[in-house]
Amino acid sequence: MIYSEKVMDHFANPRNVGTIENADGIGEVGNAKCGDIMKMFIKVENGVITDVKFQTFGCGAAVATSSMATELIIGKPIEEALKLTNKAVVEALDGLPPAKLHCSVLAEQAMKAAIADYYTRQGIDPTPIVGNISDCADCQGCS
Hints:
The chain is α+β, with helices and mostly antiparallel strands. The chain has a single domain (5-122), classed as Sufe protein. Chain: A, CATH 3.90.1010. Helix content is 41%, strand content 19%. A three-stranded antiparallel sheet has the order 1-2-3. Helix 4 (86-92) packs across helix 5 (101-121). The protein starts with a helix and ends in a 13-residue tail after the last helix.
């Protein structure tokens, strides 16, 4: 499998790894079948994501997509972050092999799950805003 330089960079030097104590939202998605599990933590101030961290258990593409997704949403208003698609993550990484595209879907879902958790903690039903968050349905096995 050939990975772009950006994928290799985000795998070898992932950005925003870790947890946030007293996070405003935490989202965890994954599938035990493929072995990829992503957990994302967000801090929100005045509707803007001021900090984001992640923990990913999975392959190099899973780590790289998590890292890139955090880079793309930090400092953004929640409404803008919700527009982040897995395609945008893949493009920002200069592509992924077809068998690894589901990793980018997981990164998008983890971010949306964290935002949904944030809304839930605010007493707001997240479903009309965030939509339904599904697990990795088309896993082709990653580990």
